User: What shape does this take?
Amino acid sequence: MTGSVIVTGMSQAASGEPTFDFSTNVGSLELNTPILTASGCAAAGRELDNYFDITAIGGIVTKSIMLAPRSGRATPRMAETPSGMLNSIGLQGPGVESFIENDLAWLQQRGARTIVSIAGGSAEEFGKVAAKLRIAGGFDAIEVNISCPNVEDRGQVFACRADTAANVIQTVRRNSDSRIPIFAKLSPDVTDIVEIAASVAQAGATGVSVINTLLGMVINTSSMRPALAGVTGGLSGPAIRPVAVRCIWQIRNALPDLPIIGMGGVRSGHDALEMVLAGANAVSVGTSIFNDPSAPMRIQNELEHELRIRGFTKFSQAVSHAHREIDSTLQINTAIDDLDPTDENWDFISE
Assistant: This one.
């Protein structure tokens, strides 16, 4: 866990600002900046590249790819909710071979840092996808999506149990280049997320991605039927950010050395800062992209500003800063400053 820093005041104006070190290490994954796209919200980044230079952020996390092409779930499969949205896309995609030939090749040519998200209906399928990626190469890390709620069989949500989560990670690790970092994407829909995080770490995960969407449901009051064809879907957006911060905090508190990629309802640099202070080594931006395709770049700039005005000179100083021990002397001095000298306890305290 990163040690605390003393925040001494505001930074200089832009013209006189010193260089800010925005780099971060998420385990063995080295990133120039801590901002990533979240899987499922920007495909492979090709469309976003029309709005900002995708090589200027930390990296692109691709949409989850499976072994074979998949059409996804029936429509309608999206519904707005207060402070968020439900999606029931169902892991639609072209399959890993098409992904390697088209999307991964484009990302490699573009020069973007790439984290490939993978999914599967069984541990064996996860392993086969990882094996094909190992042969292809051209990416920087794997995010193992063991927590997607948009599946017909809830038994496929491997992250809901420590043993099934660990089994998938072990299989992916065996079928991957040992030098490639692996991040297990976890679900908040569990009794103890720390238990799941510990199990995947022991199974060989480099770190964890926290959190995936929460399972939710909307009723259409006109038709008086579920709004989504798949009945339930994944809740994302600002509504889930406090849950994400809580999960990051709990994992960091229990597993201080485990790398964490935080995500869930990040709309601004201020939101991202909250996750960093809770313990995230990097932050993924997802749902915000739907109404602001430039959100990852904007949030990255805002996060740097939020860090500078709090006196940080490099990003790593802020990671887990909310976990620092409070200076008891500072607390006593603050308490003394608040006392009235006419109070009967003043003489005792001042001695």
